Amino acid sequence: MEEKEKQIGQTPTRRIDFKISRFKPGLIDPPRFQTYSVEVNAAMTVLDCLEQIRLTLDPGLVYRHSCHHSACGTCACIVNGSERLACLTRVWDLESRTVILEPLRGFARIADLAVDMTGFYRDIQAEWEVLRPAEPLAGGGDGGGALRLENCIECGACVSVCPAAAAQPGFMGPAALAAVHNQMQKAHADERAALLARAAAPDGAPMCERALACSRVCPTGVYPARHIADLRRLM
Amino acid sequence: MEHVLIIGGGVGGALAHDLALRGFRVTLVEKGELLSGTTGRHHGLLHSGARYVLHDTAAARECWEENQILRRIAPQAIEPNGGLFVAVDEEDLSFRERFLSSCRDADIPAREIPVAQALALVPALNPEVKAALRVPDAAMDAWRLALPFFATARANGAVIRPYCEVTALVLKGNTVAGARIVDHRTGRSEEIGADLVVNAGGPWAGRIAALAGVQVPVQPAPGVMVSVAGRLSQMVVNRLHPAGEGDIIVPQRRLSILGTTAWLADDPDRVTAPTEHVRRLFDLCAQLLPAVRTMPPHAVWSASRPLLLSGQSRDPFAISRTFDCFDHARRDRVEGLVTLIGGKATTLRAMAEKSADLICRKTGRDSVCRTRETVLLPYRRYWP
Known about the structure:
Number of helices of chain A: 7
Radius of gyration of chain B: 21 Å
Strand content of chain B: 25-35%
Strand content of chain A: 15-25%
Oligomer: heterodimer
Number of helices of chain B: 10
Largest sheet of chain B: 8 strands, mixed
Mean pLDDT of chain A: 94
CATH topology of the largest domain in chain B: FAD/NAD(P)-binding domain
Low-confidence stretches of chain B: none
CATH superfamily of the largest domain in chain B: FAD/NAD(P)-binding domain
Structural class of chain A: alpha+beta
Distance between the termini of chain A: 49 Å
Mean pLDDT of chain B: 96
Helix content of chain A: 25-40%
Radius of gyration of chain A: 20 Å
Number of strands of chain B: 20
Largest sheet of chain A: 6 strands, mixed
Order of helices and strands of chain B: EHEEHEEHHEHEEHEEEEEHEEEEHEEHEH
Low-confidence stretches of chain A: 1-9
CATH architecture of the largest domain in chain B: 3-Layer(bba) Sandwich
Distance between the termini of chain B: 25 Å
Shape of chain A: globular
Number of domains of chain B: 2
Number of strands of chain A: 10
């Protein structure tokens, strides 16, 4: 970044322009970009800046957030063209004086950066297990029967970036296919067959274009494309 | 039935669920995303209560009761792998007997295990620890533990409205008769009439109360948390010491979360995470699991606790984590307004039960709480 750092107290900051896609049905409609300028230090994330904009510049800015550490999956949005979690994206790491924020694609838009996740769950059963056996720890010992939460935080980044989902709205999408495959590992044999049949349906794995973009943007290392490849081998 | 308007989408979700089960008409408004204030933003410990036994038996006992209830009614997002309290130095060791006897007093099943066994359970544990006690802590996904309350409340008829911020309370004489809100989704303002308004604003409760001209004893107490990439333990690891800074590491998925610091603030909207706090967390938590020292931070964040001021203490770790519910008719001669203060995520259901009991007494309704035994819908059902 070329701009000189400015010193505020002990912490150097840089002035960054956040160009945010605004939309409020009936009010800011059609959507348009609005720019907010924020002094950003090295530690601040895109989510920290959204909070600052809301608290100091525009209380009406709508975005989703909850845990601030990549567990809840609510804050995914498109940052300078790429799907990312706002809470994990340090602004300085973007190496850009302007940060463009847009909502995820492929979901109904509520307002500004907030999207409605209803569609995300269309092909994911509410009852499917969120827990899985934990891996053995480094330094010895087995998992000892320990359980942990699945890697997928259901943020929607993979669905937003998927070219097949964009072209064919009926496509189950990468997150649901990965969820099917994960559920198969935990299910009884008869349920496994039904799950595989679901994944093999015309709106399932056959619609995947193997673009691998899902695995590239996934913030928690689910690698949905690998799950889809595994499902294909079983079909 | 009466229409109850709940302000605050944190613990308010549990109250919406409880009141909906009791037959009330319920509307909940939250200024941002649900669970974006405090209840969704903590380190993810489902307390066994052991953290509080040394100074607050009532809070400790309540945590253990609620821990068991949540495992039954919302099991989906709990990593049920237990916890350890470890003594790092001689001072820690001096608390051992009192800790164990206090756990017995609070009915929390705690027992000492040999250090060698603790090291086998948690190979990353500081090999120098002098004692290890096993407790029924668990780890949770804060969002997915609390969202089932909203999902179930909504399925039972409650209206849940995120992104709706209260700008004024509607006062008719000395009675709060509803709230004026701005719906940030459309920018439009509207008035929501209610027979009773519940202020469940957490650390923001003081601001809501001020809209009715009353004060409430809430003290925002922010704290910093840090996550590192790597699951260092299956169990929660705590320091055997009265509650203090940097005394816990909570595993979750493939992360480990270091908690926490605390200070008293006037403004609950503090979004800062001072770098010296981050450094202290690494230093202190490395005494529990030394591997932490060389790990880069994965995420750094802060959240404001809503502490209930009752005694004189200004030490944020000593102020009780218990909870109270105020009827402003008795306290301030303002009718139609109830405020919830204090508590913590582990006890959200109990906070809701006590508040709903008060609301039933106030409205002359004779209906019993059913949230202890009502298994909640899976969180994914929040999206219809």
